[in-house]
Amino acid sequence: MTLLLLHLLGNSLALFIAARYIQGVSFSGTFLDLLITGLVLGILNFFIKPILKILSAPLIVLTLGLFIFIINLFILWLLQALIPDLAIHGFFAYFWTLVLITAINFFLNHYHQEE
Length: 115
Fold this sequence. Notes:
Strand order of the largest sheet: 1-2
Distance between the termini: 14 Å
Strand content: 5-15%
Largest sheet: 2 strands, antiparallel
Mean pLDDT: 93
Shape: globular
Radius of gyration: 14 Å
Helix content: over 70%
Order of helices and strands: HEHHHEH
Number of strands: 2
Low-confidence stretches: none
């Protein structure tokens, strides 16, 4: 339960930082909308991402895992399409937002395992 809550807060924090500091990313909602956006991102990662990984397993193997980056970009694009308050424009905005989300979630996973 605490890991789920950490990921919700981590996703929300990453999207807040991205909207604040990455050019091409904007978020016009409230704090509650930001938490809901983090929750939706977590739901997409939990339900849609494994299906996409299974369906694209040959491409993942063929590209030595780099196709997972494309899957993550698609998940982020889908989030932006589902949440009207979130706007991401341009490849580099998607890229750096994805890097930020991944780094924060990696840190939270590492922190949670040490406890």
